[in-house]
Amino acid sequence: MEYLLEDAEAKLILSEPENETLIKEIDPKLTTLTIDTQKPYQELAFFQSASDELPPAEIRPDDPGLIVYTSGTTGKPKGAILTQSNLVHDARNIVNIWGITESDVLCHALPLFHVHGLCFALHTSLMAGAHVLMLDQFFPQIVIEALSQKKGPYVSTVFMAVPAMYGKLMEYLGDKKLDFEHVRLWTSGSAPLLSQDFKKITKKFGKEPVEREGMSETGMNFSNPISGKRKPGSIGIPLPGLEVRIVEPDTGVDVQPGQTGEIWLKGPAVTPGYWRKPAETAEAFERGWFRTGDLGNADHDGYYYLTDRIKHIIISGGENISPKEVEMVINQVGGVAESCVVGIADEKWGEKVVAAVVTKSGAVVSTDEIQTYCKKHLHNWKCPKEIAFVKELPRNTMGKVLKEKVRIFFETNYKI
Questions:
Q1: Higher confidence at residue 222 or residue 151?
Q2: Is residue 8 packed enough to be buried (19+ CB in 10 Å), middle (13-18) or exposed (0-12)?
Q3: Per-residue pLDDT tens for 303-357?
Q4: Predicted pLDDT at 311
Q5: How many CB atoms are closer than 10 A to CB 213?
Q6: Which CATH class is domain 313-411?
Q7: CB–CB of 356/339 below 8 Å?
Q8: What sign does the CA torsion over 253, 216, 157, 397 have?
Q9: Using CA atoms, how far apart are residues 72 and 161, in angstroms rounded to an integer?
Q10: Where are the chain's structural domains?
Q11: CB-CB contact of 264 with 292 (8 Å)
């Protein structure tokens, strides 16, 4: 928090009572407005005391409207500047492609410190004039109660979530069948959705989820269509106004159609840069194109697929290995729920492939079983040299697996 407050050059912070002392320790000069969220509207008098006169302010399209910090999974978070026009273009795009109107009701259970919950969900709904049913946080029972409510003024029609949230909802429901026909749109993003989970969500909630992709620095970039084919595992097609290239990361030369490369973007929602970080900004752009750091490809229908992050690529014996490719194979083993593959230092090969594996409840899976299956479907040098079974994978609040923690777990011989 000290890093974020200092980096953002904050002048005012809204705080709950339990954080007030911590904030004062960090910066005694910082103006703090303390709001006890357990007592609704306790600060009403504060707002009523404010003047009704709005002082004139010149807000231009290119002025910063928001600084949103990246996940910081590999280092210090960077503050991505999103301008007024960035935010408006992004929201209008989503309103149009998903057909959000003032008759919609969004059931909102996402955190608001991330673009998924703040921009794609809340901002977009407010821009469309829709109602928002705002939940304090994600509790499966409360979300299901809200989504299954079919009477009253606020019947949910839209739900946005990350794959891990859908998993928790389906786990809570078990074999129970409820009617969600009134919910017209289910979306998934912020982390990959497995094909088998796409099918489970479709069966449990009655409609295919809409997979999409976005970034803190760019807003939403891709989405499967509302009307048209939705391809499981695909992030969909580019949103209006977005230019996309797939290039060789080292040369910046476009790859052949169908081949995998780094995804570069250019468009009205792309950040002008990182707050107070000119070097990082220069590194992120190449001749006006934003380098996403994502590896991906496109099929003959123009649907895009993410294959991995460049920074996650394992280099073993001079060969590039995609962790996601290995994870997809491991996840096909009967009894495996999910896996995380990383590379750790190795004297002989530079890096070696290791895998943390979560099994399904009650399932018994052996190391030999996984390695034998991998050798049938992968080159030997791509197969994990070490496998550890864990109860769950470490994730951030948005459901992204924290690969650095998995790497440390192996490097410290499973002591974390």
A1: 222
A2: middle
A3: 999 988 888 889 887 777 888 889 999 999 999 999 999 999 888 788 899 999 9
A4: 84
A5: 25
A6: alpha beta
A7: yes
A8: positive
A9: 21
A10: 2-48, 64-309, 313-411
A11: yes
Tell which residue, 241, 225, 237, 249, has the closest CA to residue 300.
Answer: 237
Q: Could you tell me the pLDDT band of residue 4, with boundaries at 50, 70 and 90?
A: confident
Per CATH, the number for 64-309 is 3.40.50.12780
d(CA 71, CA 398): 9
The tokens for 350 are 């530079």
Looking only at the bridges linking them, the beta strands covering 243-247 and 237-238 are unpaired
Hey, CA dihedral for 270, 273, 275, 280, is it positive or negative? Answer: positive
Is residue 323 packed enough to be buried (19+ CB in 10 Å), middle (13-18) or exposed (0-12)?
Answer: buried
DSSP structural state of residue 121: I
Q: Are the C-beta atoms of residues 186 and 209 closer than 8 Å to each other?
A: yes
Q: Closest Cα partner for 166 from 109, 241, 99? A: 109
Can you read off the two tokens belonging to residue 390? Answer: 């864990």
pLDDT (tens digit per residue) in 80-118: 999 999 999 999 999 999 999 999 999 999 989 889 999
Q: In 230-240, which positions are buried (b, 16+ CB within 10 angstroms) versus exposed (e)? A: bbbebbbbbbe
DSSP string covering 23-72: HHHH-TTSEEEE--TTSTTTTHHHHHTS-SPPPP----TTSEEEEEE---
